[in-house]
C-alpha cells in the first residue's frame, strides 16, 4: 500500500491513534495509517471537514454501528470510533498490501487459479457480512 506523508492540515492523532501517513481517500473521507497506543497499525477513516454536516454524521454513525456487528475471517476488525468528534473518525485493523486495482495495473491480470482463490476468499468474507443481514455496497477492486 502506498503511504504518503501527512499534510500540514491533517490532525496528528484521532482518538487514541497517532496518524502516520495518508493511505487513501474517497468522496467523503480520507484514510490514514494510524498506530494504537500499543503500537498496532490501524486504518483510520475520517470525514473530510468540507462535508461534515448532520446528515454525513448520521450516515457515518450508522456505518460505525454496522462495523461493530461484523466479524469473521477476511474482515478487518473494528477498533474504535467517534462519530461526534469535531472530525468524525473510525478505525479498523490495517491490512498491509496493494489493493487489487493497483496489483492488476502493476502486474497484469491474475492467473485463473489465483482469480478462483480470490473469488473464494471474497465469498467467505461476504458470507460473514450477509449473515448479519447486510450488503457490502462498495465492493470494487480498489477496496479488495
Could you give a short description of this structure?
Helix content is 31%, strand content 24%. The protein has 144 residues and is of the alpha+beta class. The longest helix is centred in the C-terminal third of the chain and has 20 residues, at 112-131.
Characterise this structure.
The protein has 144 residues and is an alpha+beta fold. It is 31% helix and 24% strand. The chain is built from 3 helices and 6 strands, in the order E-E-E-E-H-E-E-H-H. The chain has helices at 54-69, 100-107, 112-131, and strands spanning 13-14, 17-25, 29-35, 41-47, 78-82, 89-93. A 6-stranded antiparallel sheet has the order 1-2-3-4-6-5, with helices on one face. The chain is globular and about 45 Å long. The termini are close together.
Mean pLDDT: 91
Q: How much of the residues is beta strand, in percent?
A: 15-25%
Strand order of the largest sheet: 1-2-3-4-6-5
Largest sheet: 6 strands, antiparallel
Q: How many helices does DSSP assign?
A: 3
Q: What is the level 1 CATH name of the largest domain?
A: Alpha Beta
What is the radius of gyration? Answer: 16 Å
From the spread of the alpha carbons, the general shape counts as: globular
- For the termini, the CA-CA separation is 12 Å
Low-confidence parts:
none
Helicity, as a percent range: 25-40%
Can you say what the CATH homologous superfamily of the largest domain is?
Phosphorylase Kinase, domain 1
CATH architecture of the largest domain: 2-Layer Sandwich
Order of helices and strands: EEEEHEEHH
Annotation, overall tally of beta strands: 6
Total domain units: 2
Structural class, from helix and strand content?
alpha+beta
